[in-house]
Amino acid sequence: MALGLSEPQYELLNGKKKYVQPIIHSMVLIGLVVLVVFVVFLMFYVSWMTFEDSNDQNTPMDFVLFGPQKYTSSYVAAYRAHSFAIAAKSNYKTYWAAKDKINLNKRIEKTYHLACYYSIPIDNTTKSLHPAQINATLCTHLIVAFAQVQNNSVYFKSSFDMEILRQVVKLRDKNPKLKVLLSIVHFSNGSHSNEGFPGVVSNKDNLDTFVSNVVSVINDFYLDGIDIDWEFPSWPLLNLQEKYGFAKLLQTLRYRLPDSLLTAAVAAPLNIIDNSYEIYSLARFVDFINVMAYDYHSYQWYFPLTGPNSPLFSSRNDTGYFQDLNINSSIQYWISKGMPKEKILLGMPTYGHSFILINEANNGFNSPTSGPGIGKDGFITFSEMCEFKSHQNATTIFDHDTRTPYSYHKNDWISFDNENSLAYKAEFAASLGLGGAMVFSLNTDDYSGSSLCSSSVFPLTSRIKIVLNDDDL
Ligand SMILES: *[C@@H]1O[C@H](CO)[C@@H](O)[C@H](O)[C@H]1NC(C)=O
Ligand SMILES: *[C@@H]1O[C@H](CO)[C@@H](O)[C@H](O)[C@H]1NC(C)=O
Ligand SMILES: *[C@@H]1O[C@H](CO)[C@@H](O)[C@H](O)[C@H]1NC(C)=O
Ligand SMILES: *[C@@H]1O[C@H](CO)[C@@H](O)[C@H](O)[C@H]1NC(C)=O
Ligand SMILES: *[C@@H]1O[C@H](CO)[C@@H](O)[C@H](O)[C@H]1NC(C)=O
Ligand SMILES: *[C@@H]1O[C@H](CO)[C@@H](O)[C@H](O)[C@H]1NC(C)=O
Ligand SMILES: *[C@@H]1O[C@H](CO)[C@@H](O)[C@H](O)[C@H]1NC(C)=O
C-alpha cells in the first residue's frame, strides 16, 4: 500500500502543480498585457504630441501646393492633416546633409537628356501645337501627355489622341535617335477610390491586367517607353498599399519591359517625397525620374500671396518650411535619399503663374493678392507673357535669390521663367551632374516663334539645350 499512499500524494502534488502553474502563467500574461498597454499608450501619447506640433507647422504647405479643390471632403481633410503629420515626423524633420556643394561655374561634361512633355491638343485647330511643328532634333525624349488609367487599362480620351500619338512617333523618321514615350496619368482627387492607379495596385490580377495592357500599347504604337505620372501614391493619406504598390508596379513593368524606357513624374516637396516613394525602387527600376520642380507658389485663397513658380534657391525672406520650397532643396533631398544623380531629370516650366495684386504699390514677393490673373486659372504661357510685357509696358525684375523673373503692371503680377532663369537651372543640373532636364511643356514655349520677345521657335527649350550641352550661360 506504500505505493498506494504515495500515489495520491503525487496526484496531489500534480494537482497542486496544475493549480499553481496557471496562476503564474496568468500573472506573466497580465504583466505582459500591462506592459503592452503601457507601451502602446506611450506610443500614442508621443505620436499625439508630435502630431499636434508638426500639424500646426506644416498644414499650410500642401494647401499652398494643391489647393482646396482636391480636398473638398472634410473627412479627407482631417485624414490629410494626420498623414501630413506622419510625413513631417519622418525624415523631413531630421537633418539631411547635402553632400554636394554647388558651384555653378563648374560642370560635369557628358551628354544630357532633354525630355520634353508634349500635351495632346484638344482638337485639330491651327492654334495649338501639332506634331508636325515639333522640331524632331530639339529634345532627346518626347513624352506625350496624357493617356489615363481606367479599368486597369491605358485609356485614350478619343481616337484623335491616338492619331496624335502616332504622328509624334513618326517624328523618329526625322531623328532616329529620338525616343517617344507615352505618359499615363492619374490625378488623385484626395479620396482613395479604387480606380486609376490605386485600383491597379490593389491586387495582383489588376496589376497583371494593367501591365499586359501597357505592353500591348507599347507594341501597337511602336513606343520607346512609358512614363508613369501618378500624382501621388500614398498622398495625402499615408497608404502603404499604394506606396509599396507603386514600387511593385515599377518592378513589374521593368520585368515585363526589359528593353523599354520606364520613367516616372515625381513630386518636389520634401514631405511628399517621404510619403509617396520607395526611393530604392525608383533608383533600381526606372531609367529616370522627372522631378516636377515647379508650382511651388500659385494663387490659393487661404494663402493669397505672390511667390515664384519655380525658384532655384530660397528667397532671403523665406523661413521655416518655405525655405525648402525650391529646386535646390528638392533635388538635394532626392540625392540625399539615395536617388542616383544621373537618373534625375530636373523639371523646368515654360509657363508662369499670374496673380491680381490687392495693392499695386506692394509688388514684391509675399504681396497680398485677390485671385489668379491673366491666363486660364492663372497659368500663363511664355507667348502670353511676352505680349503682357510688351503691350503693358510692364516692370520686370530678375530676383537674384531665386534666379527667376517676375513682372507687374498695375494689379497684374506674374512669376515666370525666361531664357536667363532656365539657363541658371540648366547650369545647376550640369553642375550636379544630373541626368539632364525635363521641360513642361513644348506647348507653353513659344512654338511659333512669333511672340513679341522671341524671334526663334521654342526659345526656352532651345536655351536649356544649349546650356546643357555647351558651357554658355
Ligand atoms: C542648396 O541646398 C543645400 C541643402 O539644403 C544647402 O546646404 C545649400 O546651402 C543650398 N544652396 C543655396 C545656394 O541655397
Ligand atoms: C488635322 O488636320 C490636318 C489638315 O487639316 C490633317 O492633315 C491631319 O491629319 C489632322 N490631324 C488629325 C490628328 O486628325
Ligand atoms: C531644331 O533644333 C535644333 C537643335 O536645337 C537646331 O539646331 C535646328 O536648327 C532646329 N531646326 C529648325 C528647323 O528650327
Ligand atoms: C473592364 O475590363 C474588363 C476586362 O478587362 C471588362 O470585362 C469590363 O467590361 C471593363 N469594364 C468597363 C466599365 O469598361
Ligand atoms: C474622387 O473620385 C472618385 C472616383 O473617380 C469619386 O468616387 C469620388 O467621389 C471623388 N472624390 C472627391 C472628393 O471628389
Ligand atoms: C524681404 O523683406 C523686406 C522687409 O519686409 C523687404 O523690404 C524686401 O523687399 C524683401 N525681399 C525680398 C527679396 O522679398
Ligand atoms: C512706360 O513706362 C515708363 C516708365 O516705367 C514711362 O516712362 C513710359 O512713358 C511708359 N510708356 C508708355 C507707352 O506707357
* CATH architecture identity of the domain at 75-86 and 110-350 and 417-469: Alpha-Beta Barrel
Large-scale geometry: globular
Ends apart, CA distance between termini: 110 Å
Q: Give the SSE string.
A: HHEEEHEHHEHEHHEHEEEEHEEEHEH
CATH superfamily of the domain at 75-86 and 110-350 and 417-469: Glycosidases
Structural class: alpha/beta
Describe the structure.
InterPro entries: Chitinase_II/V-like_cat, Chitinase_insertion_sf, GH, Glyco_hydro18_cat, Glyco_hydro_18_chit_AS, Glycosyl_Hydrlase_18. Keywords: Glycoprotein, Glycosidase, Hydrolase, Membrane, Signal, Transmembrane, Transmembrane helix. The chain has 12 helices and 15 strands. An 8-stranded parallel β-barrel has the order 1-2-4-5-6-7-8-15, surrounded by 6 helices. Strands 9, 10, 11, 12, 13 and 14 form a 6-stranded antiparallel sheet that branches. Residues 1-17 and 47-95 have low confidence and may be disordered. It has a domain at 75-86 and 110-350 and 417-469: TIM Barrel. 41% of the residues lie in helices and 18% in strands. It has 473 residues and is α/β, with parallel strands linked by helices. Strand 12 (395-399) and strand 13 (404-409) form a beta hairpin. Bound molecules: 2-acetamido-2-deoxy-beta-D-glucopyranose (NAG) (7 copies). One 2-acetamido-2-deoxy-beta-D-glucopyranose binds next to loops. One 2-acetamido-2-deoxy-beta-D-glucopyranose (NAG) binds next to loops.
Give a short synopsis of this structure.
This protein has 473 residues and is α/β, with parallel strands linked by helices. The chain has 12 helices and 15 strands. Strands 1-2-4-5-6-7-8-15 form an 8-stranded parallel beta barrel, surrounded by 6 helices.
